[in-house]
Structure formats: C-alpha cells, structure tokens
Amino acid sequence: MKRCLFFLLLALGCDRAHTTPPGQFLLPLLRSGGARPTTPTNLRARYAASISALTMDWVGSIDPDTGLPNVVYSIYAYELPPREYYRRQDILATTTLTSYYQSADHFTGSLYFVVTAFDGGAESLPSNVAQLESSL
Fold this sequence. Notes:
Elements: H1 2-11, E1 41-48, E2 53-59, E3 72-78, E4 91-95, E5 99-103, E6 110-118, E7 130-133
Antiparallel strand pairs: 1-2, 2-5, 3-4, 3-6, 6-7
C-alpha cells in the first residue's frame, strides 16, 4: 500500500522542485486552543546607499493569548513577488524588535520582504509586502 501511495504522489508531480504542497500556505498550523498573533503592519524597506545598509521597520504584533507584544519576528526575503509564505528557506533573519538593519552591497532589480510574528505556538499571517527597487 505504501508503495502505491508513493507512486501515486510521484505521478501527481509531488517531486517537482520549488512547488508548495497543497495547503502549505495555511502552515504553520495553530496549536489547539491558541490564536495567531496579530499581523505585523506597515512594513517599510529602505536601502541607504550612503552607508550600504538595508533597513526595515513595521508596526508590531500582539500575542492574543497574553495581550503582550512578546513575539519573535521572521523576516522573509524574495527576489520575485512572493506567492508562497512560511517557507523556512526564505527567512532572512529573526528578531524581537520591530526594526531590522543589515549591511548590504548595492543590488540590481527588486527585492521583496514580508514579516510574520511567532508567539511560541502560532505564526501570524504575513504583513504587507514591501518592495525595494535598486537605485542603479
């Protein structure tokens, strides 16, 4: 039976690289009885060429189970407009602050960012997408 299931999944194309299994956009799942942190809002991304740095800031989240802002933020980075979220390989950094700073070289093209909040049991929905255009 397991062999048949494996071949069925293979035939359906589950082995394709860079595809999201159905329903992955709903991950991570909520723990029983818990609630997601509020969604981070007003994400802004800027590149300061004078100091070669990427900066971001956003309005923070609240853990609805405690009513406090005790969450960890995941900053996701993409080279194309994001169509899939919560993929661990897209995480640029994590922080407990509502801002982020990183030295960065000049770049060409566009970069896209979203932020989520994690309260230890559930991850928020993603923030707005912040697009950063190269100045070159």
